[in-house]
Amino acid sequence: MKRSIFVIMMAILLVGLAACGTKESGEKAASGTENKQKEDFVFASSGLYPPFNYTENNKLVGFDVEIGTAIAEEMGMNPKPVTNPWQTIIAALQTDKFDAIIGSMAITDERLKEVNFTDPYYESGAQIFVSKDNDSIKNADDLKGKTIGVVVSSTFEENAKEYTDDVKTYDSDVTALQDLLVKGRLDAVITDRLVGMYAVNQNNLKIKQVGEPIYLDQMGIAIQKDDEELLKKVNEALKSIQENGTYGEISEKYFGEDISQK
């Protein structure tokens, strides 16, 4: 009888230990799931295009960076902004270095052969800038035969070639605009109106914009051609941040207005 009681007690004890082990394992599994990092949304820009994307205190910041971050969070993903040279940025996207390009890339027919674009997230114009003491250039017609500075591999580079064979390319707009102040270096710079005005104000450059914008660009987020699922998700997230006011808040911070409404 005593032996039977002993056997029963041991069986109860073993069942209890097994239950505890199962519970503990379950708790660890749940904890592991909760602590699992969200999937990264890696998006790229040149990092040389203030106020849209640039480095400040060793950190990538700017309008594009904040828009990309808001889109990632809307999709429930972890935002991870990175930089890549502009002239190779599409090739890098095609080789899976990142998920998207959020770097104020103009939507063009040529680029659409290589990538897909989301709905436009803002529109801006190609603007002519000259030094303040330059009165010989008042509009696009005056650019014929002049020396024009542009960012390499930009839509502005192709546009400048319509007016002159003397086109100088730069890695950043700020460097190009600063060269307007070096005698004999450049006659004009063609760049985005918002970028140019920001550079003038931030760097106190003695330059000015002349004439109306030569043309308007619609900027989109570039996604790999075969990634229709991500394209749909990013478009939905972009629409959401525009509707819930997040986009407007970011835009007001950099431009004092909602540039998606321009």
From TrEMBL:
Domain Ionotropic glutamate receptor C-terminal: 40-257
Coiled coil residues, start to end: none
Ranges of residues in domain Solute-binding protein family 3/N-terminal: 40-258
Record flagged with keyword Lipoprotein: yes
Alphabetized PROSITE patterns for the sequence: PROKAR_LIPOPROTEIN, SBP_BACTERIAL_3
Keywords: Lipoprotein, Palmitate, Signal
Signal peptide positions (record): 1-18
Subcellular location: Cell envelope
One Pfam short name: SBP_bac_3
Family per record: Belongs to the bacterial solute-binding protein 3 family.
Name this protein carries in UniProt: Polar amino acid transport system substrate-binding protein
Organism: Siminovitchia thermophila
Organism phylogeny: Bacteria, Bacillati, Bacillota, Bacilli, Bacillales
